[in-house]
Amino acid sequence: MNDRVSWEKYFMNIATEVATRSTCDRKHVGAVIVREKTILSTGYNGSIKGLPHCDEAGHEMVDGHCVRTTHAEANAIVQAAKNGVGIKDGEIYVTASPCYNCFKLIANSGIKTIYYDEFYREDRIINHAKEAGIELISLN
């Protein structure tokens, strides 16, 4: 009998662990970018590198959202770019589905599949994912 978790569960478990590094207590989100079952990059939501985090300086609220943080997906994409890691044709595992801005970054980076655990308020990514040929898969 095989007790091993699926690849999807494995990478989502890692994204959940990455989220524990988040520094905005409003929502802890983690992201893992993968290609061919190999982790290429990770990211969590946190402030601009070198600047105080929400848990140190408080939130910067605009229209009910904290804008002090860079989202997990954006941080994972930036980390890959910073280190010269190509992510085209990859997959991203995110603990919460992407906001519209992060979805656009994911789409333009060439990632082909988005796995998410919790659906997080942005319905328009559903139709745009279909239009862009990106698989949007709930693991919940």
Plain-language structure description:
The strands form three sheets. The protein has a five-stranded mixed beta sheet with strand order 2-1-7-8-9, sandwiched between helices. A two-stranded antiparallel ribbon has the order 3-6. Strands 4-5 form a two-stranded antiparallel sheet. 33% of the residues lie in helices and 26% in strands. It is globular. It contains five helices and nine strands, in the order αβββαβββαβαβαβ. By secondary structure, the protein is an alpha/beta fold.
Q: TL;DR of this structure?
A:
The protein has 140 residues and is an alpha/beta fold. It has five helices and nine strands. The chain has a five-stranded mixed β-sheet, with helices on both faces. The chain has a two-stranded antiparallel sheet with strand order 3-6.
List the defining traits of the structure above.
globular; two-stranded antiparallel sheet; 5-stranded mixed β-sheet; 5 helices; 33% helix; alpha/beta; 9 strands; single chain
> Helix proportion of residues, in percent?
25-40%
Rounded to the nearest angstrom, the distance between the terminal CA atoms is 24 Å
What is the overall silhouette? Answer: globular
- Number of helical segments? 5
Topology:
Layout: H1 7-18, E1 30-35, E2 38-44, E3 46-47, H2 54-57, E4 61-62, E5 65-66, E6 69-70, H3 72-82, E7 91-96, H4 100-109, E8 113-118, H5 124-132, E9 135-138
Parallel strand pairs: 7-8, 8-9
Antiparallel strand pairs: 1-2, 1-7, 3-6, 4-5
